[in-house]
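Handout, page 2. Input:
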Amino acid sequence: MAQYYTGVGSRETPPEILKLMTRFAMFVSRNGFILRSGGAIGADQAFEAGAGSRKEIYRPEDATPEALELAAQYHPAWHYMKWYSRRLHGRNAFQVLGKDLNTPSKFVVCWTPDGCTRHNTRKTRTGGTGTAISIASEVAKITVYNMQTVAGLSAVETAIRVFERQFNI
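Output:
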């Protein structure tokens, strides 16, 4: 059975975090995980670079009415958004729950400026990644490792060290 994880984040993710995201993606891909992401500049592309062919990349045009409906439940300003912005957020449902909206990722790794990890702490500064975080914490009930926080960064760095030992790197 396939195992998925969600790798997303801000376009303003710091360069040193982008490098860690790529290394993390490389190692979890070697261990059978499949990346779910959105192809955006920054964090998404860093994860994608490390994942190789083990990835599902969702684009705004992939968003279905069901995905848009789910995203609308968790975006605080949905009524003010234009069509394309809604589709950007709609694809986040697939990033967390898969194309069938019923196969959750095992976890989310991300970076946002505010370190958000749950729907109830989401703010404007969380940015577009907030919709994925909201769906992960409220619908999928999975852990969000935000690399802007000490705990999230530590978890990712620890995983990388374990994988480096495993692969003798």
